[in-house]
Amino acid sequence: MEAIEVTGLRKTYGGRDAVAGVDLVVARGEIFSLLGPNGAGKTTTVEILEGHRRRDGGDVRVLGEDPGTAGGAWRSRIGIVLQDAEDAADLTVHEMVRHVAGFYPDARKPDEVIELVGLTAKRTSKIRTLSGGQRRRVDVALGIVGRPELLFLDEPTTGFDPEARRRFWDLIRTLAGDGTTILLTTHYLDEAEALADRLAVVAAGKIVATGTPATLGGRASAQAVVSWRDTGGTPRTERVDDPAELLGRLLADGTDLTTLTVTRPTLEDTYLSLIGATR
Amino acid sequence: MSTLTVSLSRGHVEILQFLRDRAAVVFTFLFPAMLLLLFGTIFGSDGEDGGAAASRIFTASMIAYGILTTAFVTMGSGLALDREDGTLKRLRGTPMPMVAYMIGKALLVLLLSVAETVLLLLVGVLVFDMPLPPAAHWLTFAWVFVLSVVVCSLLGVAVSAIVKNARSAGAILNVPVVALQFISGVFIYPVIQLPEWLQNVASIFPVRWVAQAFRSVFLPDAAKAQEIGGAWHLGQVAMVLGVWCVVGLALCLLTFRWSSRSK
Q1: Superfamily per CATH, domain A1-77+148-161+176-213
Q2: Which of A247, A264, B40, B195 is 20 to 30 A from A167 in CA distance terms?
Q3: Binary contact (B13, A91; C-beta < 8 A)
């Protein structure tokens, strides 16, 4: 059974389609990333999958159940990391994690989770006094304390410094290694590239491309750009389907290869051309 | 985890958060006691109507005010805030049963209402020499207390749905609270000196009945001459509060929302 199966999902606000027929399959144990500009329908889609919003059309199965009607037993199998919560400001990190752990049948130990998100030093600090990045790590702790089979992460690293982001990525990989399915929405393409097994680009309420980070939008089959300086020092550039033949030729010619670069479109280039097409 | 355990855990967290918010403690909690001290001192032993000093009348009426502000405002602004800061959204995404959230809030309101009432009684007894009522009156006190806490809490939950953001909650919620105190015999006593149409308006809402019932508990029987119709009308009090319970519950069920976002 797949973790998430969506067909023809629709949601309309005031006559405008925010989600206009999304099809999506996320396999168990996969890290799946949803990319897309603000207002593309990412958050609406995710909130429908989380059971926070009703849909206007289409079929949705999350862990085998319809989130629109699923109950407490289903909720104990999912974890949600909120994007902009400011709740529990007057509680300490440990108080809040322990409190939420109490809702779940098979929760992780609060101190273990606090350690996992790197907040052990802030264990007895009020949540109000934490920095933005630390606050988000509390949200992550609350999302995973119930040992979810499926974790929703909506823009999880906004406001993190680079080191905290790397540590957070490690945490996500650890969770995925334990078999947790992860649905990640993000603005950061490097994050999607570093973490996701597969990803989908959402624009104007539709999925415009699905693939792995390496193959999305025909990235793997796109022409490579080879640049070098010839023996006279003149910059040269060629676009080729397979650079092997060209590189062999250059090597045989005795060209100075210290200036050689081979590039393919970055994930960002691919992403921008994909969402550009819908504008 | 059983629903009971989770409910108690919610109550614990609600109370912790309330106590750590000093401004909330001072305003919702000490304000009625301060008003009682002021009114009681200013009007002192004015008008020994039916043998009841003004300070004693204010103590009785102010308990109605205390319950109204704690239950109504704590529920109303608490829910508005929980919607705004993501508390409700977070809980909605967990297996916590909704009823546990409501029981948690109810435990907070109950604790605050009891503490508020004890505080007001202490001021009445210690500062204004108010004698405690005979044992038989405490039964009336008990059912009026419970019914009025329930009614005010339910109406607080219902009203929170029209509060757009938590910052304006205090202002919006205090409009009906203050207006009703003036026409329901709390700030201005006796009610019978008000124009009759105002008395009729006041009689639609629960405050008049709650204040009247608490006066029946603490004042000598002769003081009933100062009430509308010259009697305590306890049967009618129970009926009006019962109707408001049903109305409040219906409004809660119709208007409850998990999130403050309009979309």
Answers
A1: P-loop containing nucleotide triphosphate hydrolases (3.40.50.300)
A2: A264
A3: yes
